[in-house]
Amino acid sequence: MAERERRVDIGHISGLYGVRGWVKVYSYTEPREAIIGYSPWQVKVAGEWRQMEVAEGRQHGKGVVVRLSGYNDRDMASQLVGADIACYRSQLPQPAPGEYYWADLVGLKVITLKGEELGVVDSLMETGANDVMVVKGERERLIPFLTGRVVVEVDLAQQQMRIDWDPAF
Question: Which residue segment(s) compose the domain that 78 sits in?
């Protein structure tokens, strides 16, 4: 799929807020309220992606609340609870050198410094101490995403990553 059209998950609608069509949003962005600026959103409702504009939004406590255009009451907004939120990759700012969006890393071929292919990055997860890549090949591996120590090179053009890792782990 062309980069312009590739969807990147940025959150999900976690509940209702008030009676005027507002919803609670669990944002994957940093800072959390940055999700508001990625309008229009792609929202997956009943298994189908729909484009929706953010009419209003703000930080609320540790979370974010928004009202989407066309959703003006609680009953209408209730249809959105549980929906995934995405935007197109082209809507995101370019990362600084040496920084990557997780969405850009998923699907990269992972190769050790000795040239052994371990598989591809299936997903990433936060663990608190550092991010961890889930690499799927002949078996699944959990590999820390530590640039300079484990991750030696990320080559997005070649769709591969070189790592300093013992394949036995």
Answer: 3-90
Read off the pTM.
0.79
- Read off the amino acid at residue 133: M
35 and 24 in contact (C-beta within 8 Å)?
A: no
Residue 169 falls within a domain, yes or no?
Answer: no
Here the CATH number for the domain that contains residue 85 is 2.40.30.60
Average pLDDT in the 73-90 region?
96
Nearest to 81 by CA among 24, 38, 159: 24
pLDDT digits (tens, 9 = 90+) for 34-44: 999 999 999 99
DSSP string, 73-101: SHHHHGGGTT-EEEEEGGGSPPPPTT---
